[in-house]
Write a structure and sequence with these properties.
Rossmann fold; DNA-binding; elongated; homodimer; 326 residues; alpha/beta; 45% helix; six-stranded parallel beta sheet; six-stranded mixed beta sheet
Chain lengths: 326, 326
DNA sequence: AGGTTATGTGTAACCGGTTACACATACTAT
DNA sequence: ATAGTATGTGTAACCGGTTACACATAACCT
């Protein structure tokens, strides 16, 4: 392996000059620069990032902490983070936290020892006291940790308004809202949006709390649909819940969308594969991940970050679970 | 930050002794061991992995190279790899290769500089010349790179036999087999299994090559179903293709499963959410990832690895797209 | 007793970079 | 002319570990 000393010798300068040139720090004459460039070229020298890390106490590692990569929301996020990180020369470490603060903390400690450059943190938990004291650059997704930590999130409230209005415009007179877990920021914002939009109408509605879980949702919706056959619209706070609702409707022989219209929230790929295709409020998950990563890297590299709160617009996607507006 | 020198001073021994004790290498007296243990405890000393890496040229990093984490097959794999890696003290780096050998190679080069301990490689490509010369421990998933590299894969052929027989037992007399891309090992094994099982029957069949892609599959199946209305069974080489087939059937008003039965392959979570639920040959993806990781870690730690070819059994899961056996 | 081998420990070089500091020269300002 | 600043470079310490080697003592042979 060629080292900086080999390069220095070949270029006829000291290692300090080589290092300065390579890092663009300090003064280096044109002659020296040329000699070093040539030596690097000829020796195919590549800097050893471990040696560098050891004394700079920095690295090009980014930690991506998420509850569970298996949850259909996260792969696309991970993909975006990885793409952007790669393009800036960073490497992504995958951390499944399972919503367990201990596990999360453990990851942070372990990776700090490796001089990790920063973290992107996605979690459903509202509180995260152990982040507060970390001096590392962090960007949060979908949850506010504290004022100093930038947050990237979808425009959940607006999305919920959009979805609710879509059902209203399509003639729903009795809407079931599947509210997400109350511990989740995004779920609460969606709830607020629903309430705002439904409040402006004179339509009947009912709210049921429902985890973002397929089988649970199916069970809950089956029960609700049986108890209240007048329901002609369901707005689910997640696509997975919507899938459960759709299944429940199928089992009960309800005709979607003629009889019952359904809108989900998230925009995961699966929605398209359902029959009928799931209408949904799609989040631009890729964009969320990409923006979060760009902000993180700016922070890592001490570049100015304009804002600390980024809201990504959502989009209504109409498929088969809703009718066209009459 | 406390260093090994602090510990040595506190314990009244040399750094060499501390290092030896910490690594279980060389001789350390009981007295010295005790003194070091106490000093470590009191100072809350934690070894710096970067400094260690620098001269051992090893690390506890594992690279997971996969085509695209967004593909529903991979998150569960990644999850398994991460779980097992974590339990052995390793950290996982996520690498989306997009099937691009250049990108793959680039990752390998980059991570080698960080003294990565080993790689788990999943790829759809059959050839991978650039792995051959790597001295790093590697474990492959679903593809054989060379004799020295262990492979973990599902029992694809047996699965295909299982699926084909399931359709036959349920009365199918005209089966459409959606064959996966010919460049893929697993797809070819599935094809072999189908041929073997179908050959033993006197049933009509037709084979169409179909990418593991939802929309494409839908189009292809729609065409096939129109051209040949007698088809009463579809065996798809992947669940995503099966989902496309199911959608096509729904659009054409075919009744699944009374009229047309469908079996997929993979066992991804989405299958359950479809209506009717997708019958499938489920791979134990988690197990594949877990086993691959364990083997890799054994290799990294120079422990003996029994075999070099691991086949994970598959399982027939019957849901709504197949009838019960009459 | 004398030679081997096993046990135990410390010194110092080394891994491959970065950077504080000292020093030299050239240019600018007064 | 002289001080002050900008430019350019090298030496050597340092980051925080590992380990070769030298040396010392204890245990085991014959």
């Amino acid at each position: 392996m060629t080292t900086i000393r080999d390069v220095a010798k070949k270029a006829g300068v000291s290692v300090a000059t080589v290092s300065r040139f390579l890092n663009g720090s300090g003064y280096v004459s044109a002659d020296a620069a040329k000699a070093v460039t040539e030596a690097v070229e000829e020796l195919e020298y590549e800097l050893n990032p471990v040696a560098r890390s050891l004394n700079t106490k920095r690295s090009s590692l980014i930690g991506l902490i998420l509850p569970d990569i298996t949850n259909p929301f996260f792969p696309e996020l991970a993909r975006a983070v990885e793409d952007v990180a790669l393009s800036y020369g960073y490497t992504v470490i995958l951390c499944n936290s399972d919503e367990d603060p201990k596990k999360e903390k453990n990851y942070i400690e372990t990776l700090k020892k490796k001089y990790i450059a920063g973290f992107i943190v996605t979690s459903n938990q509202l509180d995260a006291p152990h982040y507060a004291d970390t001096k590392l650059p962090i960007v949060a997704l979908d949850r506010a940790i504290n004022e100093k930590i930038p947050v990237v999130s979808s425009n959940n409230k607006e999305g919920a308004v959009l979805g609710t209005n879509a059902l209203l415009e399509r003639g729903c007179r009795n809407i079931l809202f599947l509210r997400g877990p109350e511990a989740l920021n995004p779920a609460n914002d969606r709830y607020d949006g629903f309430m705002e939009a439904i409040g402006k109408s004179d339509v009947d509605y009912r709210i049921v709390t429902c985890p973002f879980h397929y089988a649970d949702s199916q069970k809950i919706v089956k029960r609700e649909l049986k108890a209240n056959p007048a329901i002609d619209g369901i707005f689910a706070s997640s696509d997975v819940s919507a899938a459960g609702a759709l299944k429940a409707a199928a089992i009960l022989g309800r005709n979607v969308p003629d009889d019952l219209q359904i809108i989900g929230f998230d925009g995961i790929a699966m929605g398209e594969m359902l029959s009928p295709g799931l209408s949904t409020i799609a989040q631009d998950v890729y964009k969320m991940g990409a923006i979060a990563t760009r902000i993180l890297i700016k922070r890592i590299e001490n570049k100015p970050v304009e804002e600390s709160f980024y809201e990504i617009p959502v989009k209504l996607i109409l498929r088969g679970t809703t009718r066209s507006v009459e």
